[in-house]
Every structure is written in structure tokens, then in C-alpha cells.
Amino acid sequence: MSGIASYGAYVPEHRLALGALGGRRAQEGGPEKAVAWNDEDSITMAVAAAANCLRGFDRQRVDAVYFASTTQPFREKQAAALVARALDLRRDIHAADFAGSLRAGTDALRAALDAIRAGSARQVLVIASDCRLGAPGSGLERSSGDGAAAFLVADVDVIAEFESAHAISDEIVDLWRGEHDDFVHSWEERFVVQEGYEPRLAEAVAGLLDKTGRKIGDFRHVVLYGPDARSHAEVAQRLGVGRDALGDPLFGRLGNAGASFAPLLLAAALENARPGELVLVANYGDGADALSFAICDPVDKLSPRRGLSWHLARRRAVSQYDRYLEARGLAASEWEASSSPGLSATIHHRERDADIGFRGQRCRRCQAVQFPPQRVCETCFAKDDFDAYRLSDRAGRLVTYTLDYFFPTPNPPTVVGIVEIDSARVHMQVSGLDAADVRIGLPLEFAFRRIHRVGGRPNYYWKATPLADPPAEPA
Amino acid sequence: MARDGIRDKVSIVGAGCCAFGENWNQSASDMIVDAAYEAYADAGIEDPQRQIEAVFTGSLYSQAGPHECADALKLFDKPVSMVSNYCATGTDAFRYGVMSIAAGMYDTVLVVGYDKPKDRGVSGPSVMLDGVRDLPKTPAGWFSLCAATYFEKYGAGREDLARIAVKNHHNGTLAPKSFLKREISIADVLNARMISWPFGLYDCAAQTDGAAAVVLTRRDLARGFRDDPVHVKAVTIRSGPNPQKDPGNDFLSWKPNGWAARDAYAQAGISDPRRQIGVAQVHDCFSLTELLAYEDLGFCDKGSAKEHISAGAFELTGELPVNTDGGLKTFGHPTGATGVRMLYENTLQLQGRAGARQVANPRLALSHNLGGHPTACGIAILGRD
């Protein structure tokens, strides 16, 4: 048996009004798209989606992590290993990146299912995360959105059992981003749709139906990637997918989330799926693929988790285009982050469990929790007598705070405070709330974020964010 | 340990201070020479190369180490050391000088505190991005962390802090060597641009370059230098846990303040600081730092500072004048210099030489520095015969 045992999603809370593009004045309530903010990227969104997916699961049992994205921030250096450290997973896992194609998310999912079926892993964490950058003024800037989805693929206790898959590989220059390009290029849109997206998606779905002997109408949930609302609707019609089965592709709310788009829509479908129903997911990119699943267990057997609907409800409107440009590093600035040699790689190496994994320690003698790890206990002065203690999935409380107007951010001030996590005190930034809403005692949870780009590299750490329901970890 | 082991064994016989400010046209050496030669003249020292036996310097920014001071003053073939202890650097350098004399190592030493932050190209604190934790790393951000908690518990607010800035700006107009010489109003403070809540621009000390120096000698030799030496009654440094990760911290006071005060008062034999201390220079890197010092040093009860502030208790004409020269607020805070600059002011006050800002007949004068996150407090108490 192989299938999906759990799912999680992440959509950045900032929503840019499409009417504001180009610096125009946006109407309230118009179409929008989800945008990763200045402290978010495909890595941080992946960590958040995966943490949501792993709620209630033992992280020690994950055997492999597959990270899929077209916007992995490093050309050389693995994202999956970084994500695995941030999630505080075991070190003896297989970590791999899937990149370069909009299909990377379903590629990773299929590879995970194959690994389970081959018996080389019992639990594989698959994460698709993307924040593609359309050039200011381009159609892609309007259509794209950001987000991440994660699935725990397993051999037992699955909610969606994998049935079959069919893939088509094709060579086409429709969308690409070269060695020195910041923005995604596109050939003429009509060509992309008529010679790429529509025929390939149809071909992959037809192949799957042929393999499984099923009809499209058998599938209660059909998840289709779509570059835009119109093409998506036309393909659905061509395939004979009913309106009920199709679900909301979320154009004007989320936007085309690239390699994570189909996975996010799959996560949304799982939220509403019932035992006995069939799910088909078809994705496009340098060919196309289609996978089918049968829902076998009630999805709500999972502890409450943050899926797509939870994230769509949590939004922070951005009506100023300039703020978006600044958040995405597209605004001119005197301050050149890359002019420094960057953080010491040796210090980063020594402190990776603390800074990336947000691991503190608990004193074996007095039980006090501390961060960062230290040799001598802050409370009882015991020496070298600690157990590692993960803080990232704990809840915290704001002890005191200040509002800093100097730290570089598109929307100052930066809220900084002392956060109590169990008995540990940590000085950290508090994100995801307005300065006016800060108060002593505020319950908090933790988010992995990009802190700055000193040295021209993304440098990551944790921030506190207001505690939301469902809580960080079931008690 | 003998708690009063240091009392009345060492005397200040000369004090000097350069003009603090944006000293674009002065190097650190230039300022060191200004301060040291004023102190020499004050002590009647005409041959420093012979009369000064050892030098203790304090600087936070210097890359050159103790040689910078030795070379500026051409004090060679002598022990010259540099001390670094955040904002308590100057007081700590003084402490080493005092101990060296009390231990019988030397008869006469020079203490120099200095720093030159204005060569860095930033008007305020630099945004330090040398790691990922604990950002933003700015002193304003660290020292403001007591505000939300203190305001909530004791009902104080930004206006109470503003009165401190207004007082210090006033006192600074009376000090010839201060940087800022401008009266301000409470409205100026409240309306200034925000730095790190609740600190607006006027809640923050100025950024300046500066140097200050004192000449120390054995008490029994002091009158050979001048008729009105002042004596060291106490000097202490107390370290504390980083308040940001200290699990027991209530963010209503800074622990090292109370610990250092307890030790200093024991050394000096002080039981009622509010009555016995005649003048005090306390660390006012930010307005709230001064407010908390009033309470932590026992000038008033915890939580009561705002009443004493509004009653004028700490103004020049008040019961216990604090920061008579305008403090860090108007002198700025060239880190290593500050503690020694305070000793300079207290020496003048005890000797009745403080001009328009002279306090009536002080017998004991306290100076106080608080540095780091804050993680160290230094206190020195001087007195007359």
C-alpha cells in the first residue's frame, strides 16, 4: 500500500490587490494574489506547510524529504537538507530536491509513492513550494501567486491510497528562466496554451483513464493545474470535468502558485474528500502527468490542521504596489545586502541545530528549558547535563516588547520582544501582527523566516507569530 | 573580603575632559592629549613621563589597543593596559587604576577613557547583521524592553521619560564641554521621530567622540598635588545575566544596578543614599535607563520615580541632583570615555568648581554606568575630606 497519510498547506498572509499592480489605486474587495513577504521564500513556506502536515505525527519516523520548487534560492546547495534541519528531522534521511519544472511537485509526489512501493522508505515528506517572480508589468506578475503544500506519503494508515499515474515528457520552450534571469520568461501565451498546456494535460489524463479503466466522471475531485482561469476552464470542459468535481482554482485569491499550485489544490480537495471518493490530479510542465487516488479513511481522522481554506481565510491586504516591490527586493535601495562577505559559515555550522532547527535544551537536573544551548545551566549551574529540546512546535508568550524603526523592512516598525517558551526566554522578532495589537502576554507560535540577505545569501531564523487555531501542536 | 577595603586609600588629584562632540577634525589621540594634559595641569604634573607610573585606558571601539594611548601621550617603558566592559568601560578602567594603587603597586597612575564612534559613518547605532538571532541588535531596542512592563505595572509613560530628557538638556546648556546646548520641551521629546518605542530621538543619548582622564595617587600623597583632593569611597563592577534570556527577569529593573549599588554602598558606608549622596551622574543612554537607575540605586522606591521626577527631586536645585552636566544625553556616549567623564564632573562638583551647574555643598558624589544588554554595572563613589 502507498498513499497520502497527511497533508498541510501554507499561503503567505499578504495579499496584493491585482488592481494595485503598477502603482494604481486598488478597489477594496477586488481580485488579489498571495505574495511571499520580505522574510518569506520557497524554503520558509515549505517549512510552514510541512510543519502543518506533520501535526500529530512523529517527526522521527520520516525517512525521506523531497523538496519541489522552481524557486529554490540556491543554484548549488540543497533546499531539502535545509528544510529537514528546520523541521528537526532525523539526520539519516534521504533528502532530495526536485526542480526546474512546474511539474516538480507532482514529480516529487510520484517519486515518493514509488519509493514507498519499492520499500525503500516508509514515510516520505513531499513539499512543493514556489514563489515565482513575474517581471513588473508582465502577465505573469498578475497571474502568479505564492504558496506551499506538503504531503506525508506512507505505506500504512493512509487517507488517500495511490492508484495509478501516467506521465508525458515533452520538449517545449514555453516558460523558462535562464542562468542570469530574475524573472520567468514566457513565449506567446496562445502558443503555450494551444501547443503545451491543453494538449499535454489532456494526453496525460487520457493515459491515466486508459490505465485505470475509469471514466473522468468517476472522479469526485479533479485537480488541474492551470496557467490562468480561462485556460483552466477550457481544459476542464474539454476533459468533461463537471463543475462540482473541479473545485475552485482560486484565481483572483491565491494566483497560480507554480510548482506548488496543483499540490495546493490537491490539499484543498483532500480537505473535503470522503471515504470511497476518487481524486485525480493532473499537472503540467515540460509535458504533463496525472495521478489518481482513492480516499480510504475519513480525512478528519487527522488532528485539525491548517489546510488551504485555513490559510485563505487568514489574510493581510496589501494595497500599495511599492510595498510589494520592496518586499520582493525589486525596489531600488542604497543599502546593498550583498556587499558584505556574509555570515560566518563555520558559526552557522556550529549553531545550525539552534538557529535552523530552533532547538534549545532542557536541564536534566532542574528541568529548565534554555535557548540557545549553553554549557552551564542558567538556573542551577549544572554543567553539560542537558537533553535537546525542540522549541519550534511549542507555544510561547510575549513577556515584553519594543517597536524598532531601524531594522530594514517594507513596513516598519519591527516588533521585537522577549518570548517565553516553557521556561526559556528568547529575544526575537514578532511578525504577523500590527504594532497596535502588540501586548504583554500575547500567546505566540513560531515561524521559520528569512531574516536577511547579508552576503547575498538568504539567512534564516525563527520569528514569533500570534498563536492561531488550531494550535501549534495537539496537546 | 574586606568590603571597605578600598575606601579612602586612593585620591583623584587631577581631572581632564576634552570637548565632547562630532570631533571630525580630531583623532582619538588628539582627544586623549586634550584630556590627559588638562588632568596633568589640574594635578600640577609637569613631567608626566616621570610622574605617571602606569596607565589604565578604556575604549570599546579602538582597534589599536593600549598603544594608542601610550603613543598619544608618549608614555613608554610603563605598564599600559586597556579595559573593555561595554558602557562600564570607563568606570572599570578607573577601578583597575584604583586597585593598582591600593595594592601598593604604584603611587600615581593615569586613567584615560575615550572612544571615537563618529568615524564609522553612521549617525545612530549601526544596524548590526552579523548573525540571525537577536535582531535588530540596537542598544535602544535592548534598553526599551523594560518600558512596556514598567509602564503597565506602575502607570508611568513617555511624559515621565520626557521630563528626564528636558532636565538633562537644560543641564547640558550649563556645561562648557557638552555637545548639545539647547533647551527642549516635553512636546519636542514626545513629537520626535521614533527610534525604538517608547524611545523617540530625544529619549536617546547623542552620539559623540570624546576622551576624559583622571590622575590617581595614594591618599597620603594627594596633598602634595593639590589642596582639595577627592577620595575614592567605593568602586565596583557587577556582572549580570543577559536580561533577554534570564528566566527570572521581571523587566522592571536591571539586576546589575542593584547588585553594584549594594556593594558600593557597603564599601562607602552609605545607608541612606538619597540623603547621603549629594550629586550623582547616572547612566542615561536612554531616558528610561536614568529612571530605572533612580530606583535601582535606592534614590527612591521602586515604581515611585515618576512622582520624584515631577517634584523636581533630581533637577539641579532638587534634593539629589542627577546628571548635572547634562549626562550622556548632551555629552553623547563615546563609550570608554563616559565613566571617566562622570568622574571629572563629580570631582569638579566636590571641589566646588562646577560653575553655573554647581550643586550646593555635596560631600559624596556617585557615578554609575550600565552596559551591555545591559549585563554590567559600574559604580564609583567619591568624597571630600
- Terminal CA distance of chain A reads 30 Å
Largest interface: A-B, 41 and 33 residues
Helix-and-strand structural type of chain B: alpha/beta
Q: Could you report the average pLDDT of chain B, rounded to the nearest whole number?
A: 96
* Inertia-based shape of chain A: globular
User: What's the helix count of chain A?
Assistant: 12
Largest sheet of chain A: 9 strands, mixed
User: How many DSSP-defined strands of chain B?
Assistant: 11
Structural class of chain A: alpha+beta
Radius of gyration of chain B: 19 Å
Choose one word for the global shape of chain B. globular
Give the radius of gyration of chain A. 22 Å
Distance between the termini of chain B: 25 Å
Largest sheet of chain B: 9 strands, mixed
Q: What fraction of residues of chain A sit in β-strands?
A: 25-35%
Helix coverage percent of chain A: 10-25%
Give the assembly state of these chains: heterodimer
Low-confidence stretches of chain A: none
The tally of helices of chain B reads 15
Describe this structure in words.
The complex is a heterodimer of chains A (475) and B (385). Chain A has helices at 42-53, 79-86, 104-118, 139-143, 189-212, 229-239, 243-246, 261-272, 308-313, 321-327, 345-350, 352-355; strands at residues 3-10, 14-17, 32-34, 64-69, 94-99, 123-130, 147-154, 160-169, 175-176, 185-186, 221-224, 278-284, 287-295, 316-318, 359-363, 369-370, 386-390, 396-404, 414-421, 424-430, 443-452, 459-466. With 475 residues, chain A is an alpha+beta fold. In chain A, strand 9 (175-176) and strand 10 (185-186) form a beta hairpin. In chain A, helix 1 packs across helix 2 (79-86) and helix 5 packs parallel to helix 6 (229-239). Chain A is globular, with a radius of gyration of 22 Å. Chain B has a 9-stranded mixed sheet, with helices on both faces. In chain B, strands 5-6 form a two-stranded antiparallel ribbon. Chain B is 35% helix and 18% strand. Chain B has 385 residues and is an alpha/beta fold. At the A-B interface, strand 18, strand 19, strand 20 and strand 22 of A face helix 6 and strand 5 of B.
